[in-house]
Amino acid sequence: MPELQLVARNLRRSFTIGSRRIGVLRGISLNVAHGEAVFLCGASGAGKTTLLYTLAGLERPEFGEVEFEGQCLYRGSQASQAKLRNQKMGFVFQGYFLLPELTALENVMLPGMIGRQRKKKEAERTLGAVGLADRMRHLPAELSGGEQQRVAIARALTNDPDIIFADEPTGNLDSKTGDDIIDLLLKLAHERNKTLLVVTHDNRLAARGDRQLRIVDGLLE
Question: To which H or E segment does residue 52 belong?
């Protein structure tokens, strides 16, 4: 049995809208093993992005705990939590979040620069791995949506993280480009022995992971 990498216990999170308090996560527990590709799916508003962010250390739960490689994510200083995310986790978002004034190469180098390491060679190698060896000097505005998402994937990998969190990585793309992006994520995660946790509303894409989890009314089915 593969060793567990991510463990969540009884996660609860709610939001207040006007006078109403709405439970988004209502007691979710799950385990993710090293090297596993897990897809979280569910209807809009079901809580899948909130769950992903909570598992990634980005949104503190009101109740429950998350352990990553034996370490409690929400203990310790904010600086230590940020350092863990920078060194151990990679993030891919629906909106790409590339800095428009930086080239593709410079965007990919950012996580290393934040960690006070200039990983130019690694960034160039990773851009080559996502098929953009000839586009690394281009600005985001000069790239297609699919190419921008490939840059975002390369950026997520540049610090050699243990796990990649992807929130609706195909949401802004047409179906063919979206399929290519999922192919790329699965291929790179397998080749580099990374754990992959993906949020998607597309059941067809979700079926391609090692395991599919469905969120309904703040609970896992």
Answer: helix 48-55
Residue written as tokens 């216990």?
Answer: 9
Q: How many CA atoms lie within 13 A of 197 on its CB side?
A: 26
Closest by CA position to 185, among listed 200, 173, 197, 172: 197
- Our measurement of the distance from residue 7's CA atom to the centroid of its chain's CA atoms, rounded to an integer in Å, reads 16
Task: Read off the tokens for 103.
Answer: 């080239």
Give the span between the Cα atoms of 42 and 215, in whole angstroms.
5
Rounded-to-integer distance, Cα 58 and Cα 60, Å = 7
- pLDDT reading at 128 higher than 80: yes
**Whose CA is closest to 7, among 41, 32, 37?**
32
- Predicted structure pTM score: 0.92
